[in-house]
## 1
Amino acid sequence: MRDFVAMLQRDYAGKHIAIVAHEAPQLALDVILDGKTWPEAIATNWREVGSWQPGWVYDTEVIEGQMNSASQDACLAANDGEKACTASLAQLRTALAASWTAQTASPLVAWSPSNPSSGQCAVSALVLQDYCGGEICRCVVAGTPHYFNRIDDQVVDSTAGQFGGPAIDYSASTMRSRQRILRHADTRQRYELLKERVEQFWLSWMWWLKQLGASIMAIWARIACATRLYGLVIRIVSSSLARHRPELAG
């Protein structure tokens, strides 16, 4: 099965391949491509738990033993957990949404401005991890692989809107390392483009913020100046009235 997966990875990269197989090959795919151990694959076998579905989706991104060991993923997760989020999640969501284009979307989906988060999950999860650390996880939604972030034990899914409302089962997910996701050249290119666009958005946003701050400071300085001038006028008038008050009284 490893040779078979290697052939798919070499000759059918970026394509959809239908596989008809029995129990053992499917369990092997769970181990090789989904990062499960054999005991985990057997325990979650749909034949045992009664969770049949019309089909299963596997990514032929990497063969187990190259970038898919549990120890490497655990180590990466621990290192990522040491990062501090450098921006609020709300700001990051805004930056991502402003940066999505057809060029950053997966070529396997028909991207459109009316559904801008479509096909953006993997690269968005990578960029979000750049800023906030945490883990990148993969689940399957309506037969489609979907990536999201888990930060401080909380699910952060910046592209959930692409599915139009169906509830996503985040509990049936597996962790993915950056190396595994970025193994495809197309994914890496799209990630680099999205990362650059987000950085440009931050720069432009910070520029406008600085301009706004400068304008506010200028207005505040004028108000302060006017306030001091007004106070000076009041003091002059008060002093003048005080000097002439005896004359008016007499």
Note: Residues 62-84 have pLDDT under 50 and may be disordered.
## 2
Amino acid sequence: MTKRPRNVANDIIDATESATRKWTRQKKSEERHPGMVRYRASRMTKEPTTKQKKAAWQVMEDAYMAASNGGRLPTMARQIYYQARPKIMAMTSNKQLAYGYFSQKLLPDYIEEKGVSWNVVYDARGHFEEPHTNISIGCGTIGVRNYIRAMRGPEIVEADLKAGHVRTIGPRGNVAAILFCEKEGFGPLFKAVDLANRYDLMIISTKGVSVTAARQLVETICGPDIPLFALHDFDVAGFMIFGTLSRDTRRYKFSSFVNPISLGLRLDDIDGLEREPAAATKTRRAQRVDQRRADRDDRDQAQGAWSHEGRPKRRAARRHLRGVSQEPGARGRVCQAAGRHDGRGRCRGPRGSRRSGPQAPRQASPPALGRRRTPHL
């Protein structure tokens, strides 16, 4: 593009072209692709939608007050979700609001940003059990909160109608260590070997990542005399779960130091062990290749089924003759496989079709056929 000399007229032209460059590009695109007209209309007439976060910030306080009876009662995060969901969806064009996104993202962010002291509790995930007393409580906000409030030292109960015993709640005189297990389901195994009573272990098990209630319990009980042992998988998720027992996160901040001891495997431990059989994970590229191969097999099978009828048969033969090698000296070569050559330079089946029995190797075509072009079928 040649540069025009500077003057008032050329400056007006340059300014106009610069201002209308995007519009010109759009119009030329619409001339080539008429569907772009609908795209432009939808973009220019589309009304801006309200984000779920913005809508939640507008209705969150009313939802909490409705679920907690004006803030006088503890309320579950799910109850706040039920109060806020229809209002948020009405403000966001009925976009579905997931409970996990609301309870783990929107609600904690709102409480942290606004600095409100709401009494929000969460469902129990997992449980913890004391040794000797057989007290088992769910790892939920209310359960852990009530347990910490009720902790007291050992108390001797004299014999009456029942035998004398020691009454205690909490770690004093009862718990020597805490064992955290990232998975549930090992309770019957631990009970069969009497693991908790033999080693004075409080066993905490959750369903994956530790909940904030479990971290609060660990921070309250653990100290210099009560260690924390963590039993986790040797994978990324397992090490992440192990890290949340001592590292501050967005949901929970530790006020005292907790040093968990990992009981999981290390690289030196797995050296020489057999690997469990696992199916190989295919990449998207491999999946596309397999899909193309399956489509090609279906197409070849369909062509083989149609090759027994008149016109499709001639089309299959023409398709095969087009694929015959055009190397020098092999011009006009046709398939000479057993049972497939009809004597007139034509193939009875499509290229690549399978036939039972041995097949003869390809041979050069007759001299007369080799001196002229492949006949048009």
Note: The CA atoms of residues 136 and 171 lie 14 Å apart.
